[in-house]
Amino acid sequence: MEGETKKLIQVWLAVIASLCYCYFIVTKIPKGKVRLISLLPVICLFTILPLHLSSVLPTGTTAFFVTWLANYKLLLFSFSLGPLSEAPSKSLFLFISISCLPIKIRQKSNIPNNNFVKAPKIPLNAVAKTLIFALLIGLNDYRESINGILVLILDCCSVFLFVDIILALCNAVVRTFSGLQLESYSDEPYLATSLQDFWGRRWNLMVTNTLRETVYKPVRSLSAGVLGPAAKWAPLPAVLAAFVVSGLMHELLFFYMTRASPTWEVTCFFVFHGVCVVVEVVAKKVFIGKKYRLPCCVSGPLTVGFVVVTSSWLFFPQLRRNGADVRAVEECKALVGFVKDRLKKAKIV
Fold it and tell me: Cα dist. 162→86, 115, 137, 165, 201 in Å?
């Protein structure tokens, strides 16, 4: 545990040093190819840094923050686009935070889309989610005697809560030290009423925002020029492209966590969902009017059930096959034990 902690500290010191270089030097370089070239060493470093770690959760989290989010934001910054385009005018702390953390500063012009019907929220604060997550981790000791469907639900809930807690911690830290208002990182995905709602408006919105800027918008613009009179369908290839890129990035994250050759199952998971979202969008535009919208009590369980079932089919097998799920649970338990020991030594508990 302590050896991995030292490695984790070394990795993040390298990340901070690289982003200091970006803040003090790269920001002075004009946007375009020259700035992109100056950022390539950092992007390459961020791609290999997760290989310095061996545990599942620190590796996966670091790869998500640095190899995915930070690299994509730096690519946008090369051409003075994205959230980092305004960050140099802010503090070094904010530049680093915006670069590698799943946060987005709330803009005054950001007006929520009121044309989309949402189910009412179920208030679950961070403390409640943390307690539920701890309970689910404890239940893993009995997974051999639990029904297969319940194990699948357990795994899905554990992934959701872990990601949600990490994103909440990042938001809380940045809000505390900066005083800025940040956009919501999630919006009760278990209440989604369609796949479009789940992926586009509720689940892991920081990834959604990143893919929208780096993949969706460029592909939509290109598609509109190619399709011409049929440009109203330009968003469809853009949506599919975003899901393909998401699948490939998840495949890379899984490689970092398992160190096993890709099986492309998780890529197929996201490509399949991308195709389903495209079909859903077409069906809404062509065949279904608003007056035929399914009630939330019907569309909600169908949507969540579809995500859960397809996760069992294509998302989880790669992790289970390599024992990454078991190692992740053990790491959570080890972390709890580590914190308890430190608190006892400090005579806090």
Answer: 30, 31, 10, 5, 19
